[in-house]
Amino acid sequence: MVFIEESYTMTNVIPQPMIPEPFRIRRMLKETHDTYTIELESTNGADGFPFSAGQFNMLYVFGVGEVPISISGNPEKPQSLFHTARFVGNVTKAMFKLRRGDVLGIRGPFGSHWPVDEAVGNDVVIVAGGIGLAPLRPALYNFISHREKYGKIILLYGARTPEDLLYKRELEQWRGRFDLEVNVIVDSTTGIWRGNVGVVTTLIPEIQFDPLHTTAMICGPEVMMRYTVKELQNCGVKNENIYVSMERNMKCGICLCGHCQLGSKFVCKDGPVFCYDHIKELFGKREI
Amino acid sequence: MQTLKQYLEEHPFFKGIKPHHLENILGCATSVQFDAGQYILREGEEANNFYIIILGKVTLEIFTPDRGPINIQTIGEGEVLGWSWLIPPYHWHYDARAIELTRAIALDGKCLRNKCEEDHDLGYELLKRFTHIITSRLEATRLQLLDVYGVH
Ligand SMILES: Cc1cc2nc3c(=O)[nH]c(=O)nc-3n(C[C@H](O)[C@H](O)[C@H](O)COP(=O)(O)OP(=O)(O)OC[C@H]3O[C@@H](n4cnc5c(N)ncnc54)[C@H](O)[C@@H]3O)c2cc1C
Ligand code: FES
Asked: pLDDT tens digits for A230-278?
């Protein structure tokens, strides 16, 4: 297993990483009551936005502020740039007042990516919680498009309620494939829901995979990731084959300001995707 | 066609159990089936059984006057439904309803309690297995209570 931390940052190839590029909104797609997917196109005629699965951009709402948001589209179809964001505060709320034709500033792509090449030949277990499915969707697109290179592909996805599930149509399609295993679970429900109820970690002991030859990719709230790592370890998955995507407040996105520091690491440069083995001492620690 | 004994032997809950304990347990077992929508147990009723789920899915519900039944957990193949038969006063704490055709093995709680009194080794073995289930469900419930996907 080769650890790809430093080498998979892309900040060094962006000529002016502090200057936002204007991108026009082509489409706003409502995913849930508080989450939208934004499709963007370049205003300067560039014919694509190359990125790797798991990377993020800084999205600038002019006059309001800038936030890090993962890229949620298909890395093999870079003609459109997709971001899926949940409105929680000042910037994200202002973002959702924007309409088709409005312009956003984009800096990126920044950070490390999911180890899709390192996972070749292995079973892949993807565990997503809530909005955490957004950064993992590009990796899933990759696995589907290169299906023959991998063993089992298993997606475990947890959300608060059935109404909070992202990408419902795609989930249906993925579930319908014979070469993907997709298990969805919600924390609670009152309506007609025939799926699983409980926390996403309870799905792990139920799946069949080869723990010694498995790459696990996890993204969700930190406490969910902590328990997911524990369950995967209980099943025999090695620390060096577990990857997590971390979130910290960001400002520069290019390792200058120190806002995103996590112990000796910087989430914007060394992350957001980390091999668990390299951050296990920092994981779940207070006041880092 | 598998026999009851084979089902029990292969079920994760009984993995590694000694053959003579399994024989004892088998004496309290019957095969049951529930249609989709059928209630298996109701809150407050006497807890006389527990169920080894062979096929299908069951939902645990709490009824609330304002929101109706709230589905708090699903239990499926390879899992176990019910531990109230073990703990006095032996009453169910939730409703449980099959959400699809469900086949299970029902184990008679009174019969098992008597056997456990007679053979404490069997009692200890079952208690260890149930304690494992109870602690992992407690952990899961705590995570649910944290509402980790909410905006905080
Ligand atoms: C690398 C990285 C990738 C990210 N990818 C995504 C993504 O793909 N989609 C997405 O929606 N978000 C993503 N985020 C989180 C996103 O950056 C924040 O939600 C955003 O910065 C909030 O900014 P704001 O100005 O809208 O809210 P603020 O005004 O900063 O915060 C307002 C309120 O929202 C709460 N809040 C802030 N952030 C979060 C959060 N992440 N979760 C829950 N509550 C929060 C705060 O505690 C506060 O109460 C990512 C973050 C990082 C570091
Ligand atoms: S955001 Fe500035 S150092 Fe990471």
From this structure: 999 999 999 999 999 998 888 999 888 889 888 888 999 998 999 999 9
| Among the partner residues A164, A193, A227, nearest to B149 by beta-carbon distance | A164
B144 contact residues in A (CB cutoff 8 A): 187-188, 198-199
Contact B149 A129 (CB under 8 A): yes
- Verify whether the Cβ–Cβ distance B140 to A202 is below 8 Å: yes
- pLDDT value of residue A3: 41
- Which run of H or of E encompasses A191? none
A116 compared with A48, residue with greater pLDDT: A116
Q: Using an 8 Å Cβ cutoff, are A199 and B143 in contact? A: yes
- Identity of the amino acid at A177: R
**CATH architecture, domain A123-245:** 3-Layer(aba) Sandwich (3.40)
Indicate the residue type of B102. T
Whole-number pLDDT of residue A185 = 95
d(CA A63, CA A60): 8
Choose the closest CB to B74 out of A131, A190, A198.
A198
Mutate to test the pocket of ligand 1, among A88, A244, A265, A266 (most ligand atoms within 8 A of CB): A88
Pocket test for ligand 2, best of A66, A257, A270, A274 (most atoms within 8 A of CB): A257
The residue in chain A having the minimum alpha-carbon distance to the alpha carbon of residue B101 is A194
Distance to chain B for A75, nearest Cα, Å: 27
Token pair recorded at residue B22: 């399994």
A6-16, pLDDT tens digit by residue? Answer: 444 444 467 78
pLDDT of residue A9: 46
A110 lines ligand 2 (CB under 6 A): no
Q: What are phi and psi of A199, to 5 degrees?
A: -100, 155
What pLDDT shows up at residue A36? 96
CATH assignment, B4-149: 2.60.120.10
A131 lines ligand 1 (CB under 6 A): yes
Which amino acid makes up residue B19? P
Domain ranges across chain B: 4-149
Q: Nearest residue of B to residue A161 by CA position?
A: B149
Q: pLDDT digit string (tens) for A166-211?
A: 999 999 999 999 999 999 999 988 777 888 999 999 999 889 999 9
Measured from the Cα of A268, ligand 2's closest atom is 4
Domain-by-domain residue ranges, chain A? 16-110, 123-245
Q: Considering only the top CATH level, what class is A16-110? A: mainly beta
